[in-house]
Amino acid sequence: MKKWAEITRRRRKSFFAALLALAHIAGALTSVQAVMETRTAQGAIAWAVSLNTIPYAAVPAYWAVGRTKFEGYVKKRQDRIDETSPFVRQFIDSAKKDFPDPDQDIEAHFLERLIRLPTTRGNDVQLLRNGEEIYSSIFRGMESAEDYLLVQFYIVRDDDLGKKLQQQMLAAAQRGVRVKFLYDQIGSRKLPHSYLDALRQSGVKVHSFISTRDRFRPFQLNFRNHRKIVVVDGRQAWLGGANIGEEYLHADPKLSPWIDAMVKVEGPAVQAVQVPFLEDWYWTSGDIPDLDWAPQAASTGKSRKVFVLPTGPADRFETCALYFLHMINNATHRLWIASPYFVPDEQIVSALQMAALRGVDVRILIPENCDNFMVNLSGWSYVAELEKAGVEIYRHTNGFLHYKALLVDDSVSAVGTANFDNRSFRLNFEITLEVEDEEFAQEVKEMFLHDFADSRLSSAKELEERHFIFRLAVRVARLFAPIQ
């Protein structure tokens, strides 16, 4: 018995030694990829050290959250781009012919080269404020659908609001409308099968955006499809910050009232909104839906200049970060930013400092209480370095400020899904609508002013007066900014 026990002990020891060796080999090999692919030198060093010293934890962490390119999506987009591009090309050619931009300024040229979508005129854009106004507008639009209905949200809950959305899709399908529903697998992970089965049984095409669907890259857990899009018949579209959940109707006892914004757009920009939905739908289903790609002018007669900016980790460039850098650098006298999650990287911080030093009125509007504890902590770490350059950070104290908006000078504004954080800049699929129009910019300005009135000016002195443990937690949270 003793001899057998000794043999068993030696075998167990050899087994664990082999596992240890394999872990370090995996760590060394993975560190090579991290050094080759990680965006910054600091990030590459951090991953290389951790992968070689604690590979048991670092290797799975790297494969889950360490990469910034959504490789499977990139491959599928390139493999059969010839199948989707004719529809997109049809829209681009029609938009440039029927709704040309006579200015063709440097701004438009940059944006079109960045995203490969045209700037369009002939649009009407309506700013929608908070849940009641947002959902009543969306549901009225869904009720008017005659041909097809595209619905995409990051979070969909099976609560009263979620059931209303479900009923709208069911009713549309019963009228003979082609309904396509896309949700993010992680954001809507609590959505029950019964909710989805009822839709499928009524003829609604349902798919989840799954970042791990590529069998060769099963661990891409850090990517999210954060877009919120509704398109009716290719003639009306909605996009912005609001998901589908009762908390957006002030049902969250801790965070209410929930402050949000979306935009409704009519005109040729609607076809541009369809482009990212087409790509996302193709990624999830392999199907190319038959959509209306012939742009038409808005019926209101307004002619607002609009650019639709879909961004994500499958892009050629870091399009979201480049866009916001461009906007910051272009500001001449006003730059107001609203974001519930404000965790910028160093290049954004530097650009904000330079804008303030140029004399631009730079204001950042963030919530006093965020629903993400780590984001709330790390946000404090930026106050001192921005404040010394003249940037003002306002903390909204009346509920949870969740909209994402930008106002540049007197005529350029943007509303969408992208936050000022690394996740939106490099890891999430997002969509932003930029409007060049003084009247609409005035509406966005009034929204900002209303929320500035419910805010307080933050200062570095506040952090200095907090307990050492809190200040340490702020610095530690800053270290995790790249994956928040």
TrEMBL record:
GO CC annotation = plasma membrane
Signal peptide residues on this chain, from the entry's feature table: 1-28
| Major localization listed first in the record, in broad terms | membrane
An example GO biological process term is: cardiolipin biosynthetic process
Q: Which residues form the PLD phosphodiesterase domain?
A: 221-248, 397-424
Q: Which UniProt keywords apply?
A: Cell membrane, Membrane, Repeat, Signal, Transferase, Transmembrane, Transmembrane helix
Q: What SMART domains does UniProt report for this protein, alphabetically?
A: PLDc (SM00155)
- Where does it reside? Cell membrane
One MF term in the entry's GO annotations: cardiolipin synthase activity
Q: Which NCBIfam families does the entry link to? A: bac_cardiolipin
Q: What is this protein called?
A: Cardiolipin synthase
